[in-house]
Amino acid sequence: MALPVPLAFSKFIVGLVALLAGSCVSCFLF
């Protein structure tokens, strides 16, 4: 029973990854 990934969930994952990436960059710079 494979359902397509909802757009909202996809945006949530993208936002989460972007947040983690921003945190890593901040830690690296500072």
UniProtKB/TrEMBL annotation:
<keyword id="KW-0812">Transmembrane</keyword>
<protein>
    <submittedName>
        <fullName>Uncharacterized protein</fullName>
    </submittedName>
</protein>
<feature type="transmembrane region" description="Helical">
    <location>
        <begin position="12"/>
        <end position="29"/>
    </location>
</feature>
<keyword id="KW-1133">Transmembrane helix</keyword>
<keyword id="KW-0472">Membrane</keyword>
